[in-house]
Amino acid sequence: MKTAQQLLKERTERLRKTIAFEKTDRAPVFLNGDAFFAKHVGMKLSEFCATMKASHKAILDSFKDFGDVDGTGSTFATATMFPLMFYTRIKLPGRELPGDTLWQLDEREMMTVADYDTILNKGWKDFSYDYLKNRLGIDLDSLVAQLTDVPQFKKNFEAAGYVVYSPSASITVNEFLSGGRSFPKFMRDLFKMPDKVEAVLDVILEETLADFRQQIRAVKPLVVFISPARGASQFYSPKLWERFVWKYLKATAEMVIEEGAVADLHIDGNWERDLEYFKTLPRQKCIFELDGATNIYKSREVLGDHMCIKGDVPAALLALSTPDEVYNYSAKLVKDLGPGFILASGCTIPPNATDENVKAMIAAATGK
């Protein structure tokens, strides 16, 4: 029987080889979820979201029940962190919502057009601190205090033999404004004041990339998660997408690669129109992480061996189908996508997925 450290080494090497399209014994399988793990261990979502330590324990305990999985996408619930990524409020179970109700982003216009001028005049950091603390009412001191436990969370998973897939994460800068302004108003701004929006995004990019670069140098991750979720091609005209999404996504991915890590591009939504753009990123230095909305076979056809693909067992399949249906879908992906493929759920495992279906997905990769 292999030790946890032998398993960690084996799984890390399997992931490295898969990213590089080298031959492996099997496709890696990673679980990315949050509320699902709370349900799995019988924890109410209000308890799960109460502290990062509580959610970490639930996720780790749950992993031990699922056995031969290569690793995890996250080591704690990120619900309380969402306002720092989307610049909007969140309703949490046990606070604004009943104790076992899934958290919800409460997106509305919290950032005004006048804030664009403030950001241009004072910079992003000064604006952000005041905005998050005083306008959104976020307890930044509590979040920062809890984040000091995150390095230990990673060690706990590794001590159990699991790879922590992406210990560093960021979003693309357009997400800050589209969440803070609200998506409809942000889209309107792109037509009414495109030059000002671009100038603001340039300021945010410069400041956030400088901080993100330092974080990567400190953590030295193999993979860095980048979420451009609401930048999907389906939401923008080609001209707007190239100017307000691709420019910033490309700059972020190139910085990650420059620092020696692999950029995991969390491709929620449909990006099929613009797949060719991704071939301009360095070869085999990115992972194209799909949620089922972008056709995974079309993605492989266009990207070939330029970029590893991860995904995309749909949430509906994990929640509503039979284990045989999940197994057959997952096994077909493993067979058809071949080298350079990581099996995982599309985006995250839904809270109402069944244990049997998640085990069926794992079995399709491990053969057990």
Please explain how this structure is put together:
By secondary structure, this protein is of the alpha/beta class. 53% of the residues lie in helices and 12% in strands. The protein is built from 17 helices and eleven strands. Helix 6 (113-122) packs across helix 7 and helix 16 packs parallel to helix 17 (355-366). The longest helix is centred in the middle third of the chain and has 26 residues, at 194-219. The two termini are 16 Å apart. 45% of the residues are buried. The mean pLDDT is 95.
Q: Key features?
A:
globular, 6-stranded parallel sheet, alpha/beta, 12% strand, 11 strands
Write the H/E string, N to C: HEHHHEHEEHHHHEEHHHEHEEHEHHEH
How confident is the prediction overall: mean pLDDT? 95
Largest sheet, described in full? 6 strands, parallel
> Over the alpha carbons, how many angstroms does the gyration radius reach?
20 Å
pLDDT < 50 runs, ≥5 residues = none
Structural class: alpha/beta
| CA distance, first residue to last residue | 16 Å
Percentage of residues assigned to helices: 40-55%
Number of helices: 17
Topology, number of strands? 11
Shape: globular
Spatial ordering of strands, largest sheet: 6-7-8-9-10-11
Approximate strand percentage: 5-15%
